[in-house]
Amino acid sequence: xxxxxxxxxxxxxxxxxxxxxxxxxxxxxxxxxxxxxxxxxxxxxxxxxxxxxxxxxxxxxxxxxxxxxxxxxxxxxxxxxxxxxxxxxxxxxxxxxxxxxxxxxxxxxxxxxxxxxxxxxxxxxxxxxxxxxxxxxxxxxxxxxxxxxxxxxxxxxxxxxxxxxxxxxxxxxxxxxxxxxxxxxxxxxxxxxxxxxxxxxxxxxxxxxxxxxxxxxxxxxxxxxxxxxxxxxxxxxxxxxxxxxxxxxxxxxxxxxxxxxxxxxxxxxxxxxxxxxxxxxxxxxxxxxxxxxxxxxxxxxxxxxxxxxxxxxxxxxxxxxxxxxxxxxxxxxxxxxxxxxxxxxxxxxxxxxxxxxxxxxxxxxxxxxxxxxxxxxxxxxxxxxxxxxxxxxxxxxxxxxxxxxxxxxxxxxxxxxxxxxxxxxxxxxxxxxxxxxxxxxxxxxxxxxxxxxxxxxxxxxxxxxxxxxx
Length: 470
Known about the structure:
It holds the Pfam family Arm-DNA-bind_3. With 470 residues, the chain is an alpha+beta fold.
């Protein structure tokens, strides 16, 4: 039977705690149904400390009146800083009993009020959502999934980011005119960069609309500040031969990397970061079975891809791995180990220093042209500007025009997404790995290079062309 007592502050402060793991209740003689629930003492370092019991006020009543009596907690009580004083607890108990008599459940009403307050708070927060706060969410929920995560965030609100001047602004107050003006200002010094930043901002604002942070995209329909033409620079066979021959003087790793970029026309950063354990180089008795698994995190489109290795690509990779100049991983100087990367200058990171290597390659090509011109008594021809990316365009052009390789297969070899979305047919093909067609195409391309560029087996050209035309 529950003990009854007329509550006083002094009496509450002197209540003995319950036995460890237990609790008891005392009913108030002043307000019917009001009780104090007394728990065990506070625990510190595994021991019960002092006589300070855990006390809370509860109301025993019928919720609703026709049901069995149940207890609802009114609030806690502590000696120094009570959540509820004795006076407040009695007033709250009387109020709840009055509500119950009217058919209301006060605890349910309290829950509803709290939920409504939470909704109002959220609405208030959303009503004043800063650009920086929205970018932080976009970063955590979207950008973190992308390989270009840091680059994209920097383009948005880095030191030279398009939206950096708007960081503290309520995102809903941004106007199309303001965004357009910043784009125009950026384009004065860096028009192509401004194009990219506008594209990143457009994607960000579209996400904000999807997340209901914005009603409409303030970057929508803003024209690019600079026209961009698709790359149409591709190399002739003679130019490919010049590049191939000049790479010999570069040595490891750029000799192998440039040659692989011709034979295996993926993006520079994809070829440069090849890990040894991602390669299955097969056996010498069947050099056509090599496979390189390009993991999702190393690709521009964040999708993994199995890449068939032609015998020529396989030979270049094996030569690079076994090159005496390839450094070991000396992170633990007492126990050096093989580097995880095929192309590296440190042993612990993928190769870098592309600009210097490219400049040196250009000089070697120019020197070779000068010698050839002097030999024949004519003026040398200047090397036209080119980039490593042009090697991809060269493959695509020759593969489709001369070798008869299907455009969708060539596109998949390049690991494209954007170009593959130009038609419905190409979108369908791009979802397929097309492994066997890619393998045949890359073997045909390697044979073409061996015959026309490297100078091996020139008599195979006619046979090759007959096969690809069939």
